[in-house]
């Protein structure tokens, strides 16, 4: 093709580009510094490729219930907006549920030495929920120490958060959680004021919580 391409063919060479017929690029990727590989199909394979893409487009049109192909993009945009709205609503409901559960958890304050402590397994799904509760605990100042666990059939999570009084005593959340994480088959770490861990032995979670509490006195 004049001086446009020195060599643009990985197969049989052609005398003239008209022999190629339909030409469709199907992928391109970097294979080295300043070098990219372009893959394409031609002739019969190109027609088959485009026909397959047309079938996919027909399926998408039916799934999004678009009257014509030109409406597919707007239909998808509308569905995405509905999904975002539903996700926001779901997050709001979830936050309300966690706030309600947090209220019950915060009633379980006990004293260990000269520290007030909340230590329990929460009825939540995982670490994200534990962090939400910990944020609420921090903003409300419910105790000096928060030790929370969450578990499912095959997974356990733990979060430890420390208030200023506990920090002034030299306690570190990261050290505490590292010392007990193995009890529920996990590992973790974090900052002095907050740390988290995950493990694969939920049956050991309560023992880990008790072991963490025993180190506070």
Notable traits:
217 residues, alpha+beta, six-stranded mixed sheet, two-stranded antiparallel ribbon, 6 helices, 8 strands, 43% helix, elongated
Structural write-up:
This protein is α+β, with helices and mostly antiparallel strands and 217 residues long. Helix content is 43%, strand content 25%. A hairpin with a 4-residue loop joins strand 5 (145-151) and strand 6 (156-162). The longest helix has 35 residues, at 72-106.
Low-pLDDT residue spans:
none
**Proportion of residues in β-strands:** 15-25%
Instruction: Let me know the largest β-sheet.
Output: 6 strands, mixed
**What order do the SSEs take from the amino end to the carboxyl end, as H and E?**
EEHHEEHEEHHEEH
Distance between the termini: 82 Å
Strand order of the largest sheet: 3-4-5-6-8-7
| Whole-number mean pLDDT | 88
Structural class: alpha+beta
> What is the multimeric organization of the chains shown?
single chain
Q: What is the number of strand segments?
A: 8
From the alpha carbons, calculate the radius of gyration and give it in angstroms: 30 Å
Q: What is the percent of helical residues? A: 40-55%
Shape: elongated
Total helical segments: 6
